[in-house]
Design brief:
Oligomer: heterodimer
Strand content of chain B: under 5%
Radius of gyration of chain A: 18 Å
Helix content of chain B: 55-70%
Shape of chain B: globular
Largest sheet of chain A: none
Number of domains of chain B: 1
Distance between the termini of chain B: 32 Å
Shape of chain A: globular
Structural class of chain B: mainly alpha
Number of helices of chain A: 10
Order of helices and strands of chain B: HHHHHHHEEHHH
């Protein structure tokens, strides 16, 4: 149990996908302008990450590994994720239209989001069990959510400020991201200190 | 002349990283030192070159409706090959690039060039375009990793630099430094670039993020 909590917390705070592993930077810079789109995108990412892990993990363990097909990992995973996203979209549209309305626009973007492919591959590389892999995906998704929401707050305060001309637009956004990421580094030793005794 | 410009435009005028701002994830993640950056650049260039050739050669055969999945499968196949080659001949590089090697599949530069260039042009032009974009990507990575390694670690490609080795700013090699140096480089490009790319030249319209992404306004903000 302690191990699961450590995996969850370190995925959210320490190994934050956006701010320390640089996965999913495109939506982080692109969609974080408004709070509601940042929230929608992150919820869709959490959802797809969990689904993708639930599907790709058994595929790797029970189909690819026993048949010595480990090298097909990249191709199989990206195809599974792409078709999964399509499938989820169709199912949501038919059965839960209200959820589709709020998450629908973000779903197609997720196919090309490296955080989703990243989390599925890392789960295999880290030799997690199925439960640990799911917890790790949840934590990574929550970490993405936290970074997006925090950063959309940072950006909204930046809107009215007077920025030097060559820094306008993307450069100042990146510098702000740098400072946000710096604040996350302060959480570095927290997990070891909390759970060090176990 | 026209043929040559297909190659050279990717290097500065339409540099995929510094001007088009594509492929930010690998740029930030693998630019901690020069060797990693060059390895990543070379791997991506190989994939880009061959994917452009293949997609351009198959452009009349691939049905329009399923073109994106077809491109992704082609690219994923190439990435797998590169991954196996790197594992076999440069295991140290494989170790340090780790997860970012398979993630070349979702690098927007490669899918972007396939969609915007290779699917509309002949094989020779596409090959040159792929090569040019790859070289531009590698150059941008090299530039960023040089700044980060020289000032962050006091070394250049592993060689120690006398004064800086004792006075290095370690934060530059960590995550915040990546964002910071990238921001500074784009600001410098904004300051000195005479050529302002028109948005339609590299088509936000083709980007899957187009609908809700704020980047369109961000890039053309000035």
């Amino acid at each position: 149990m302690t191990k699961l909590i450590i995996i969850l917390l370190s995925a959210v705070f320490i190994n934050n996908y956006v701010l320390s592993k640089f996965l999913g930077i495109c939506p982080f810079l692109g969609v974080s302008k408004k709070l509601d789109s940042a929230t929608g995108m992150s919820l869709a990412v959490i959802f797809v990450m969990l689904m993708a892990t639930a599907v790709t993990f058994p595929i790797q363990k029970y189909i690819l590994d026993p048949n010595d097909l480990g090298y097909l990992q990249t191709i199989v995973f990206i195809l599974v994720i792409a078709s999964l996203v399509q499938l989820v979209e169709i199912i949501l549209k038919k059965y839960i239209p209200s959820l589709h309305k709020s998450l629908g626009v973000y779903l197609p973007l997720i196919t090309t989001n490296c955080a989703v492919l990243g989390v599925t591959i890392l789960n295999i590389n880290e030799n997690y069990t199925f439960i640990e892999a799911m917890v790790n995906s949840l934590g990574s998704g929550l970490g993405f959510f936290l970074a997006m929401v925090m950063f959309s707050g940072v950006r909204s305060t930046m809107e009215g400020s007077d920025i030097p001309e060559s820094f306008r637009g993307l450069p100042i956004t990146l510098i702000a991201a740098s400072i946000t990421s710096l604040s996350f580094m302060g959480l570095g030793g927290v997990i070891e200190n909390l759970f060090g005794g176990f | 002349m026209q043929i040559l410009s297909n190659f050279t435009k990717g290097i500065i005028k339409e540099n995929p990283v510094l001007v088009l701002v594509l492929g930010t994830c690998p740029t930030l993640a693998t630019s901690t030192n020069v060797i990693n950056a060059l390895g990543m650049g070379a791997a991506a260039t190989v994939v880009l070159f061959f994917s452009n050739i293949l997609i351009s050669a198959l452009r009349k055969i691939i049905p329009d409706k399923v073109r994106i999945p077809c491109y992704i499968v082609l690219i994923a196949g190439l990435v797998t090959m590169v991954q196996m080659l790197v594992k076999a001949f440069a295991p140290a590089l494989d170790e340090s690039l780790g997860i970012y090697l398979p993630l070349i599949v979702v690098n927007c530069i490669i899918l972007g060039r396939a969609e915007m260039f290779a699917s509309k042009n002949n094989v020779l032009d596409s090959a040159l375009d792929g090569l040019g974009m790859g070289v531009g990507f590698t150059l941008a990575l090299f530039l960023m990793s040089t700044v980060r390694e020289v000032f962050g670690n006091g070394t250049f490609a592993g060689i120690e630099i006398p004064v800086l080795i004792d006075n290095h700013i370690s934060i530059l090699t960590m995550a915040p430094g990546g964002f910071f140096v990238f921001g500074l480089l784009i600001a410098v490009m904004n300051k000195f670039a005479k050529y302002k790319p028109k948005k339609k030249n590299f088509g936000c319209d083709n980007c899957p993020h187009n609908d809700i992404c704020g980047q369109k306004e961000v890039v053309s903000d000035d």
